[in-house]
Design goal:
- It is a single chain.
- The protein is of the alpha+beta class.
- It has helices at residues 2-21, 41-57; strands at residues 27-30, 33-36, 85-88, 91-94.
- It is elongated, with a radius of gyration of 16 Å.
C-alpha cells in the first residue's frame, strides 16, 4: 500500500509542480525516489527551494540526508563539489575512469 500512496501523494505534490514550474526538466521518479537533471547549480538550487516549499505546503518532508544536489563530474566538467555521487533505486552513480578505443583514459 505504501508505494501506491507515495505515487498518489507525489503526483499531486511533485509531478504537478514540475510540469508547471519546470516543464522542460527531465526527471525519473519511482514511488518516492526521484532524480532531477538540472543544467546548472542555480537551476538545481531553485528546484530544491521550490520542492521544499511545495512539500511543506502538502505536509510532507524531504529526507534530510538523501536530498542533495550532486555534481555529475566528467571530462568536460572538472569542478569540485561536495557531492559527486548519489544513490538511486539501490544503485550508486559516480564518475569513473574508462578507456577509449585508442587507449586514452578519461
Amino acid at each position: 500500500m505504501s508505494p501506491l500512496l507515495a505515487n498518489l501523494f507525489l503526483h499531486y505534490a511533485f509531478d504537478i509542480l514540475i510540469n508547471k514550474q519546470f516543464p522542460n526538466l527531465p526527471f525519473e521518479r519511482y514511488a518516492d525516489d526521484i532524480v532531477c537533471h538540472c543544467r546548472t547549480k542555480i537551476q538545481a538550487e531553485q528546484l530544491l527551494n521550490s520542492l521544499k516549499e511545495r512539500m511543506t505546503s502538502c505536509h510532507l518532508d524531504l529526507h534530510p540526508v538523501k536530498t542533495k544536489i550532486a555534481y555529475c563530474k566528467d571530462r568536460k566538467r572538472l569542478g569540485f563539489r561536495s557531492y559527486t555521487r548519489f544513490d538511486f533505486l539501490g544503485f550508486t552513480f559516480q564518475a569513473r575512469s574508462v578507456q577509449d578505443k585508442v587507449g586514452n583514459i578519461f
